[in-house]
Amino acid sequence: xxxxxxxxxxxxxxxxxxxxxxxxxxxxxxxxxxxxxxxxxxxxxxxxxxxxxxxxxxxxxxxxxxxxxxxxxxxxxxxxxxxxxxxxxxxxxxxxxxxxxxxxxxxxxxxxxxxxxxxxxxxxxxxxxxxxxxxxxxxxxxxxxxxxxxxxxxxxxxxxxxxxxxxxxxxxxxxxxxxxxxxxxxxxxxxxxxxxxxxxxxxxxxxxxxxxxxxxxxxxxxxxxxxxxxxxxxxxxxxxxxxxxxxxxxxxxxxxxxxxxxxxxx
Length: 266
Fold this sequence. Notes:
The chain is α/β, with parallel strands linked by helices.
């Protein structure tokens, strides 16, 4: 039996107003709920905008993250902030025995469950979806070999708290894989990327999605005001995770980080 199609979600008139984005949206006291409402509003056109505005590279970045995770036979994988399930489902063909996709926006999970019906039956049974918060993971300690989060750590209200939760549910020796947008280091390319992300993409993505929540104005602002790669690594270190690798992809537009939990950690 197939899952029902997701119900239509009315777009709010505004989630992120211009005044909210004039400063740093990561300091907004209502960020947690605003992010939830924003993703609820754009869930139905989320994948289309991702493909178009990354020129199809978003799927290549996810495939890179799966390879970087080095999933072994029988491993358990948790994909946090899984959205519509692209990375979760990319883990399905690996040697993992269990793959869990977690998100706190029900409308995104509904889309993921619809897409799940297209998975190869030989791997579909190992995948499940859970509604939950990255800052309060509903799992016992040390129960996953891999934790991943793609383009989600930036949207968490308290990234340090989420990092501690990732470390808590990882087994000793486990891997945390983070995909996140970055800004190219070469100045001309950085300026071009900023123009594309700050002016072109918000207009075309808003038109395609019919969004009125301000989601695609929030996106470039949230990238530009987010912590640097070194600051992100420091947050992971404070949670007890050691940086293993850092790779910049597509000329620095995206970064993939891998952190390890010490074998001696509890």
